[in-house]
Amino acid sequence: MRLVAAFEQWARARLADPAPIADAARDLGVSERTLQRAVARTLGRTPVGLVQDLRVEQAEHLLRTTGLPLAAVARRVGYESPGPLRALLRRRRGEP
Hints:
Blueprint: H1 2-12, H2 21-28, H3 32-43, H4 47-65, H5 70-76, H6 82-93
Helix pairs in contact: 1-4, 2-3, 4-6, 5-6
């Protein structure tokens, strides 16, 4: 559980970065496989899935509380273009 909390904190601090899982594992002092197993066991998700959830959560917050356009929000949460973020937002809302 401590490892997953540390990973979440690590990921939140780097939402705008590509944040490869290998870098997180190295920074947290574990193997990539150990990190993947810990996140899956604790959250039932992959580390990449958790990072996506955190990015969508932050994007929704920014869209509600700022006047930033979607493209700017996408860049702030780690996407080069708004398309992938738009798709994740739709999926989270249950839209096709």
